[in-house]
Design a protein that fits this description.
The structure is a homodimer.
Chain A: E1 2-6, H1 11-22, E2 28-31, H2 39-44, E3 52-55, E4 61-62, H3 64-75, H4 89-123, H5 135-158, H6 169-183, H7 193-203, H8 209-212
Parallel strand pairs in A: 1-2
Antiparallel strand pairs in A: 1-3, 3-4
Helix pairs in contact in A: 1-3, 1-6, 4-5, 4-6, 5-7
Chain lengths: ~230, ~230
């Protein structure tokens, strides 16, 4: 049995939910609020961060990239040609580079600001770090998002999928990143037709369905968020 | 042929140099200054960060954890019982968790402040971000270092090596982290005898020798930095 500690709007958590769905591996979900730092969860992951995966009585598998390796080692072979890491070490290195790019760099430079300003600040009370979004921070997040969209377009123009011929963790990482921002209606799709075309392909995969059904109390998704034809 | 883009005081770069030495794989080194952002290096790694490894005409392998996976895939088997990632997926997940802990979390919370304040600020000119170290930042770095030393002690008291029975990437990551701070004489060894004992074991490995010979112009290493009996 698989148990996933996650947060609905954490990009690395969404990535793992997508990977699990691609592996057709069901997991029980437990939501963790990033500012909670509850002691029982710190015993699971002393870093206090999500996602964390547990399988049966095994030790906690902490962080998205470590979970991705674990799922490849335990499920990858059975996926056959749908395996999410290529066979060749060079191809694997490229997938891992992009996985890190979208789960860490893009989140640090853009994604986390949207989530903090437009979601987490609304979920917390005023005395606990809640409040209205900061427009300067959002402007910076939008500026940096443009650069990451250009990079996705650059890759999608030259390759079948982001890391090469094969659909991979790289696409799921970029998809998790964009889906979070798209929930908030902050992706300028019309300006990036190549990215839109790539996202349409990934969005229509069955593994994406649960992500598109996500909903946060009091913060509804953008109108087109669920539409496959947006 | 292997080519490594690195920085002498970057913890992830030191980690890769240690891994290469454990694999007995020689590499040509090219030093990159983090604030340089030269165009020819951005073509190698668009993220602009080190370490980056290239093998023959292969594509760049970017970031320490991706290089660690690459070297395990291409050299791990030949290391036999000295392999730096265990065989079992659970053991691998634990090594990867700790590798991330020491190369990312410990660096973000402590290591990078020592390096920025005590090295990089002295290497840059006043108009380019150079200047004296900020004492408040250093105080925070020292406070956070204590927590990471306690964590190493916690692990070293319970296990033969940090991730379990076997010497692994986890030890090399923690060793790279501490060696950088030790160069600056900032590790309070006397207060953490268990950590000192573990570090003495790793410091005496042949792979550590090139690291102990490191020297930065104008910023000499602490007196005991090279001593195996410190």
């Amino acid at each position: 049995m698989l148990l996933l500690y996650h947060n609905l709007m954490s990009v690395p958590s969404r990535f793992v939910r997508l990977v699990l769905a691609e592996c057709k591996a069901g997991a029980e979900l437990t939501e963790i609020l990033p500012w909670d730092r509850k002691e029982d969860f710190l015993l699971v992951n002393p870093a206090g961060s999500v996602p964390v995966l547990r399988e049966n009585d095994g030790p906690p598998v902490c962080s998205a990239s470590v979970i991705a390796e674990y799922l490849d080692e335990t499920r990858g072979y059975s996926l056959g040609t749908r395996r999410l890491l290529p066979d060749h070490p060079n191809g694997r290195a490229e997938v891992r580079r992009l996985m890190q790019w979208f789960l860490e760099k893009a989140v640090d430079e853009s994604g986390q600001f949207f989530i903090e300003e437009k979601i987490y600040k609304r979920m917390r009370r005023p005395g606990e770090g809640g409040g209205p979004p900061d427009s300067t921070t959002l402007r910076a997040a939008r500026g940096n998002l443009k650069i990451h969209l250009k990079y996705i377009a650059y890759l999608a123009e030259r390759r079948n999928w982001l890391a090469g011929e094969q659909f991979s963790y790289a696409d799921l990482a970029a998809g998790a990143f964009l889906s979070t921002i798209d929930y908030l209606g902050e992706v300028p799709w019309d300006k990036e037709p190549v990215v839109k075309d790539w996202y349409q392909r990934i969005k229509s995969r069955p593994a994406f369905r649960p992500i598109l059904a996500d909903s946060i109390k009091g913060i509804p998704a953008a109108n087109h968020y669920m539409d496959l034809d947006f």
